[in-house]
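Students often ask why we bother encoding 3D structure as a string. The short answer is that it lets us treat folding as translation between two languages. Here is a chain of 280 residues written in the first language.
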Amino acid sequence: MGEIQIVKGDKEMKKCGLLLTICLMFVCVTSTANGHMFWLNASNYSPKAGETVWLEIGFGHQFPRDELIKEGRVEQVYALGPSGKELNVQKIFPSFYQFTPPTEGAYQIIATMKPGFVSKTTDGRKLGSKKDHLNAVDCFAFRMTAKALISVGPSKGGPSKESKKPLEILALKNPVNLKVGQTLPLKVMFNGRPLAGAEVKAAHTGHTTHKKDQHAHTGHGKGMHQHWAQEAESNSEGIVQIILTFKGPWMFTTSHKTPYPDKNECDDYSYRTSLTLSFE
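And here it is in the second language, the structure alphabet:
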């Protein structure tokens, strides 16, 4: 896609042009999911060193774009370099960031949402714990993270590394070295250990709820609608195998629950994470 020229010397024109450029970079297609998701989109998953990458916070039910996340909901966005060093990611708007990788290698952009509580009450779901709502029926404490894998330079880097988040998905192969029809192994980790039995769900920008991917599992999508391009359960080593059926951006997500220690305040911790990447 060609770049949009921005008039120099006019700050307002620059902001408008920048926002329009970023919005055009992300094609809006539908891939419905159950429950809110939190993910990262990148304008370029294989940039050159020194080339700026535009990042967009994804939130809602439809990948790659749905709701604009509200100011103050994102806790942190940063990058992990090839050596594991944390690097700054610049905030442009509440939903938009930019990052310029300084050298070749594999980079991970990581975002975390501010933690909180959601309670199911007799009046519907509301933010807050049981202590905030006397009519709460049940409650979960949400912890949401998102990761995007960026590969820079001819070496394209290697597989993704652990980021020390409670729940995360690791790509065991760099996707830029794969082709359509090949398999991408992913590993689900919880508190630094492989998580068996985790349901990993995959969406890509070429998938909609009106089509079924020929390799999709149909256990949760019998009939006319297939919400996910693929679904798989992690084995005893936390590994799932995803057949890459489409060129371009993919988003993988999984969730995990553990008991909350104080049942008077809440019932469970609810962890959800995502990984976005792309291959050509």
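Translate back mentally: The CA atoms of residues 178 and 279 lie 7 Å apart. Keep this in mind for the problem set.
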